Amino acid sequence: MEPESDIETGTLIDHGAPVRQFSVMLPNRAGALAAMVKLLRASAIEVIGLSVQDSRDATVARLVVSDPETTEQLFIEKGIPHATCELVVVALRESGPGLLQCLDTLMIAETNIDFAYALLPKPGGHSMLAMHVEDYEFAVAILHQSGFKLMYQDDLSR
């Protein structure tokens, strides 16, 4: 990831690697998601975030994992079709007020959220909101400038 500029000062900010999400099509049958999680755990990869949307024939599982590089290699080796994208992840101190402040900040900046879901917190950790936005760099800069605690892949890898 290229460092981005602070919106007001133009100063470069380097935050770290963005959180990567994997989208995987699974058959819509009992045990398909469990089999995917077992495959990942066999390689010491933990699922940190999960969103599942099903239809009659297939299920789209969106996964955030502790080790995206190994996950990518595993999916390629096993022939598992997948897509990846970058997510903005915000640590929220308070779920109600913090969530609304985050959403309002993005709305005022006129940036759209394509989809969002909560991540599983580390023990004793904050609630975390993962969002796919129309412009990753812009959203990161706006949220950072507004004082939100942003999480990056290194923060989530255990």
Oligomeric description of these chains: single chain
Q: Assign the structural class, choosing from mainly alpha, mainly beta, alpha/beta, alpha+beta, or little secondary structure.
A: alpha+beta
Q: How confident is the prediction overall: mean pLDDT?
A: 85
Radius of gyration: 16 Å
Query: Count of helices?
Result: 5
Helix content range:
25-40%
How much β-strand is present in the residues?
35-45%
Shape: globular
Task: Describe the structure concisely.
The protein has helices spanning 32-41, 68-78, 95-108, 136-145, 153-156, and strands at residues 4-5, 12-13, 19-27, 47-54, 58-65, 82-92, 113-119, 127-133, 149-151. With 158 residues, it is an alpha+beta fold.
